[in-house]
């Protein structure tokens, strides 16, 4: 990265784009994550070659299976495609006629049960495949009883969603026990749950039939990749319901260089020192929260508890003692600067937070300086 306000990309500069400092974590809206050098190199090396694509898909899948402890794996076009082909696999399976028929689900089991506190925007990916979402968890009896009663002859799968905003008093393992009792597969969205690296194997170990993760968030592979892993018959069905096969997932293409990039990113991810990375993130957050020290009405804290899987976050809480601009005003001011600094605001009006995970050396100081200015220091 240059010391000027160049984006670092001649193409992006020629389009007149501003350099962004990403304090929002690995979000698609800002370009995902940074691909480490070995990931970039793996993509470059793969870009000028031909291979048998189906063979590549199979062999790459075997690598994913090894890393996840699952029977089989498949590189998909983002966790969003993971969700789409989870649904397609559970409805159409490997049946050629059904694969061509989707998203018309006539004659198939086509309902996915979703816990009421797991409702989320990415559900649309299940619906794209033709599935209907049916909510459970607001009735009488224990949650296990409610789930058991919600399963019927239309149920194609039960979904379980992981992420900071999603909770369920039944663990994945307990949901799996109830669903498997009635021979219904459990599909998991763990898109943003890497790191910690343990999660690569945790959901499969808990009995999930299919799990998906983003390749372009904490794994730092290409933004357009994702990981699908699980039962061999369902992964094979997912493969047949996705590009390059004529299917509901034909538009979800993963290119050979993206597959190479994801594998390089995963090789790095499983062997790297995560504690050292966490310590670096924490030191950047310490630099950032120091901007709020000794200011009346501002409480700066580092949040790095178990619930915060995306690194130790620098947070600022504003109370009645604060007479400066609101968190949203500060957020807008920082974003309109050059470089443009993107930070988050909480659901709570008086909360501003900066994630260190997508920063690079030197950027925490720039963020802290800009924050000091906005906080009137
Ligand atoms: C990011 C995310 C997705 C989508 O993942 P992509 O890899 O961007 O397609 C799906 N579900 C959850 C919970 C996410 O956080």
Polypeptide structure, described:
The protein has 2 domains: 10-31 and 273-375, Aspartate Aminotransferase, domain 1 (Alpha-Beta Complex), CATH 3.90.1150.180; 37-271, Aspartate Aminotransferase, domain 2 (3-Layer(aba) Sandwich). It is built from 14 helices and 13 strands. The chain has helices at 10-14, 37-47, 53-68, 78-92, 96-101, 123-128, 143-150, 172-181, 199-205, 232-240, 256-271, 274-289, 327-335, 363-374, and strands at 20-22, 72-76, 111-115, 132-136, 155-161, 186-189, 210-214, 226-230, 298-303, 313-318, 340-342, 344-345, 351-354. The chain has a 7-stranded mixed β-sheet with strand order 2-8-7-6-5-3-4, sandwiched between helices. Strands 9-10-13-12 form a 4-stranded antiparallel β-sheet. Strands 1-11 form a two-stranded parallel ribbon. Helix 9 links the parallel strand 6 (186-189) and strand 7. Helix 3 (53-68) runs parallel beside helix 11, helix 4 crosses helix 10 (232-240) and helix 7 (143-150) runs parallel beside helix 8. The longest helix has 16 residues, at 53-68. It is globular, with a radius of gyration of 22 Å. The two termini are 28 Å apart. The relative contact order is 0.16. Bound molecules: pyridoxal-5'-phosphate. Pyridoxal-5'-phosphate is lined by residues 28, 78-80, 122, 163, 189, 191-192, 214, 216, 226.
């Amino acid at each position: 990265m240059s010391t000027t306000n160049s984006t670092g990309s001649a193409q992006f500069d020629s389009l007149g784009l501003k350099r962004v400092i990403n304090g929002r974590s690995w979000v698609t809206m800002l370009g995902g994550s940074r691909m480490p050098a070995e990931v970039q190199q793996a993509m470059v090396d793969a870009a000028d070659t031909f291979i048998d694509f189906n063979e590549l898909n199979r062999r790459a899948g075997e690598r994913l299976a090894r890393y996840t402890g699952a029977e089989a794996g498949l590189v998909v076009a983002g966790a969003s495609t993971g969700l789409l082909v989870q649904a397609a696999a559970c409805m159409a399976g490997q049946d050629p006629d059904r694969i061509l028929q989707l998203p018309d689900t006539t004659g198939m089991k086509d309902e996915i049960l979703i816990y009421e506190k797991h409702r989320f925007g990415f559900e649309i990916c299940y619906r794209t495949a033709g599935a209907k979402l049916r909510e459970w968890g607001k009735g009488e009896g224990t949650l296990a009883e409610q789930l058991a009663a919600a399963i019927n002859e239309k149920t194609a799968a039960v979904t379980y969603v992981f992420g900071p905003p999603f909770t369920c008093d039944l663990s994945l393992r307990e949901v799996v026990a109830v669903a498997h009792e009635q021979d219904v597969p459990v599909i998991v969205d763990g898109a943003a749950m890497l790191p910690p690296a343990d999660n690569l194997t945790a959901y499969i170990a808990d009995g999930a039939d299919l799990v998906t993760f983003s390749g372009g968030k904490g794994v730092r592979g290409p933004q357009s990749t994702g990981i699908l892993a699980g039962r061999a018959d369902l992964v094979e069905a997912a493969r047949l319901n996705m590009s390059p096969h004529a299917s509901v997932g034909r538009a979800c293409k993963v290119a050979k260089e993206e597959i190479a990039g994801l594998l390089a990113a995963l090789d790095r991810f499983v062997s790297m020192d995560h504690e050292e990375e966490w310590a670096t993130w924490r030191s950047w957050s310490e630099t950032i929260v120091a901007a709020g020290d000794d200011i009346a009405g501002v409480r700066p804290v580092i949040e790095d508890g178990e619930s915060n899987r995306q690194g130790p976050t620098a947070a600022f809480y504003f109370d009645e003692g604060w007479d400066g601009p609101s968190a949203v005003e500060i957020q807008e001011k920082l974003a309109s600067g050059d470089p443009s600094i993107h930070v988050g605001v909480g659901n709570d009006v008086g909360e501003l937070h900066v994630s260190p995970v997508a920063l690079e050396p030197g950027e925490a100081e720039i963020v802290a300086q800009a924050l000091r200015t906005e906080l009137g220091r």
